Design the sequence.
């Protein structure tokens, strides 16, 4: 494509903005690209892309997958650029490509791994045609932005370039139906001991057949609409999978095509992320052996999960993405299934809404707070301006009133923890990670000061 | 008492499933009939006391209209017999004249109210809403790809104190005829508004002194109301 003077000006200004932000110690994640697109609306079309482009999209897990794919490719010696430090909308991707280009707009890297926001699909795929797009899954997400899965499904489906090969989850009955005319491979996980025959979640957006609207028959349900199903009325069914993995949670490994991979976590969500990454890279051309070797050296970003045993108590921080009923439900399910007694600190306020608005909390009512009405959970301490709304939701879920403690500020939660359980889970919104770490540190300080033993609680072995 | 929940596997986008679970806790003796999309509505053959319909996708709106249009006379009859009917979120649009898509094509709706909806799929309209309904205040949330127009001055559900009504230029929200109530407010409005829940129970002849967890509901409502009434709160 011939480069216009607008493009050249946009590239120059974008580079200057990037330089200025670096000098000021700021992450050049969004602004340079935004400026460039404002000057040259088809900037993404004119900028040269690396010869190989991998797109990663989906409701949950796209950041983890994109980071893992980038890390493994770098470990295998590829020259990679990615937006892992930046935003996943068109301006963020423009910033990434600016940083990976010469001033004349020539690509300096061999591979681009781009995390792509679902809602930005139209603005991105109009100009960038990835060879592969991995869609991890499609679920309900933030109601005020993503609306509902069908909306996002249509948006992606209509935007994906016809030449792009899709890597899709056969166990996800929504995303597996994306862009039906595109070339594709499917991955899935074999039946697991934790699978059920009936959906335990409030939300299952595939209860009915999408073709004839009769009830779908699930052979097994993993969570929400994830599982294997068919329609006894019209024959609609989960697609056949080319990559079917066996997952052994107890051993922390996944086996695919005879190769073993580390799971790097003990949640089903995580197992799907690892499988998705492996399959994408197998399609890219890497051997299973090489992928496995690189995975052994990689870690998942720590801000999403941390664990430390202090004075016999395991203190865990776990991100529970706010306004995302599915992600929170999976975290609650994970917590209830962990062994031993637990205290929970819930910090779920929307960081932005609480500054100057009032959070739309309809997502609480799609979230399985019922999982927290578990005998192993001794106490739930809710911190934040929405603590009383969460209390109502917990009561409807069957949590006893005596075990719910509300405080308007998460800063007060550490002093309300009783230290009488085997585990303390601090479940927090993404943008309140810093606050959650402060809470964690204060609880840790209390444990290190021996408060548990002063109260007569005996330490436990883990 | 019979409460019919229309199309619970599809019309459940904004927390309606738990709202119905709460209604069940309020009315433990009630029989709740879930009617799926390929089934005949219970109100056609059974003496239902209440019908509930929640928010749905735009494609589902069209499917639901296809299913409900043959029962238009029955729905009119339900309304005239003063049976409680609560339609939330974009379910309200089904009871107007039509829904206009962005390309100008019109989807015929039930035509029970002189209103019509216009979709704008590129713009998600989100807002808080504070309203006054008879003797109590109502609060809730809107999140939608459409607005409604037409005259609801003779049959609105509540007056809007802050936020908007049928469309950004309106201060009259929802539709009301006898005990038929429809509003763009999202699914958990019963849980968010204990006074409204009591009002519904009274219409059902199941007046209670105390709702389940009423003190907690009221505390949450009071705190939320203070935010909604704060002039610095962004709607």
Sequence:
């Amino acid at each position: 494509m011939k480069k216009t003077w607008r493009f050249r000006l946009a590239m120059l200004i974008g580079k200057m903005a990037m330089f200025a932000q670096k000098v000021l110690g700021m992450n050049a994640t969004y602004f340079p690209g935004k400026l460039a697109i404002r000057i040259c609306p088809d900037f993404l079309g004119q900028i040269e892309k690396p010869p190989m482009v991998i797109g990663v999209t989906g409701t949950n897990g796209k950041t983890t997958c994109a980071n893992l794919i980038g890390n493994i490719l770098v470990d295998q010696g590829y020259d990679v650029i990615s937006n892992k430090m930046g935003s996943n909308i068109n301006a963020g991707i423009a910033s990434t490509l600016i940083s990976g280009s010469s001033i004349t707009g020539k690509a300096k890297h061999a591979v681009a791994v781009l995390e792509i926001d679902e809602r930005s699909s139209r603005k991105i795929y109009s100009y960038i045609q990835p060879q592969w797009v991995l869609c991890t899954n499609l679920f309900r997400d933030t109601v005020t932005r993503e609306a509902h899965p069908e909306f996002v499904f249509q948006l992606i489906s209509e935007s994906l370039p016809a030449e792009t090969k899709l890597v899709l989850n056969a166990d996800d009955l929504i995303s597996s139906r994306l862009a039906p005319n595109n070339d594709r491979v499917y991955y899935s996980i074999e039946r697991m001991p934790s699978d059920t025959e009936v959906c335990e979640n409030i939300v299952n957006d595939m209860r009915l057949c999408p073709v004839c609207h009769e009830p779908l028959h699930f052979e097994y349900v993993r969570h929400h609409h994830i599982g294997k199903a068919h329609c006894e009325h019209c024959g609609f069914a989960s697609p056949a999978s080319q990559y079917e993995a066996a997952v052994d949670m107890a051993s922390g490994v996944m086996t695919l095509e005879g190769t073993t991979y580390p799971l790097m976590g003990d949640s089903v969500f995580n197992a799907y992320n690892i499988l998705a990454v492996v399959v994408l890279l197998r399609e890219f051309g890497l051997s299973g052996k090489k992928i496995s070797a690189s995975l052994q050296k990689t870690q998942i970003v720590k801000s999403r999960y941390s664990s430390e045993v202090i004075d016999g108590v395991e203190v865990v921080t776990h991100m529970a993405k706010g306004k995302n009923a599915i992600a929170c439900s999976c975290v609650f399910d994970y917590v209830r299934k962990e062994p031993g007694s637990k205290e929970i600190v819930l910090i779920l306020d929307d960081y932005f809404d609480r500054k100057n608005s009032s959070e739309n909390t309809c997502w609480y009512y799609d979230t399985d707070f019922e999982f927290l009405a578990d005998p192993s959970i001794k106490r739930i301490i809710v911190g934040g301006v929405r603590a009383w709304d969460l209390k109502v939701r917990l009561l409807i879920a069957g949590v006893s009133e005596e075990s719910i403690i509300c405080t308007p500020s998460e800063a007060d939660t550490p002093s309300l923890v009783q230290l009488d359980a085997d585990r303390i889970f601090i479940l927090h919104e993404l943008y309140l990670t810093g606050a959650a770490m402060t809470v964690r540190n204060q609880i840790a300080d209390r444990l290190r000061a021996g408060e548990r033993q002063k109260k007569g609680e005996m330490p436990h072995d883990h | 008492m019979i409460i019919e929940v229309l199309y619970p596997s599809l019309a459940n986008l904004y927390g309606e499933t738990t709202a119905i679970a709460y209604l069940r806790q309020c009315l433990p003796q009630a029989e709740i009939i879930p009617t799926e999309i390929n089934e005949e509505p219970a109100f056609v053959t059974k003496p239902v006391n209440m019908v509930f319909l929640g928010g749905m996708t735009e494609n589902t709106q069209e499917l639901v209209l296809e299913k409900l249009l043959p029962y238009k006379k029955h729905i009119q009859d339900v309304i005239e017999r003063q049976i409680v009917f609560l339609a939330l979120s974009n379910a309200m649009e089904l009871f107007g004249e039509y829904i206009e898509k962005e390309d100008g094509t019109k989807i015929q709706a039930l035509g029970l109210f002189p209103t019509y909806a216009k979709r704008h799929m590129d713009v998600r309209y989100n807002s808080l809403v504070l309203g006054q309904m008879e003797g109590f205040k109502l609060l809730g949330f809107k999140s939608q790809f459409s607005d409604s127009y037409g005259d609801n001055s003779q049959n609105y559900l509540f007056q809007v104190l802050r936020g908007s009504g049928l469309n950004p230029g309106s201060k009259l929200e929802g539709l009301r005829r006898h005990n038929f109530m429809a509003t763009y407010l999202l699914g958990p409005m019963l849980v968010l508004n204990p006074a409204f829940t009591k009002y519904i129970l009274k219409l059902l002849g199941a007046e209670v002194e105390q709702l389940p967890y009423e003190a907690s509901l009221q505390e949450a409502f009071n705190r939320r109301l203070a935010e909604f009434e704060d002039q610095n709160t962004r709607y």
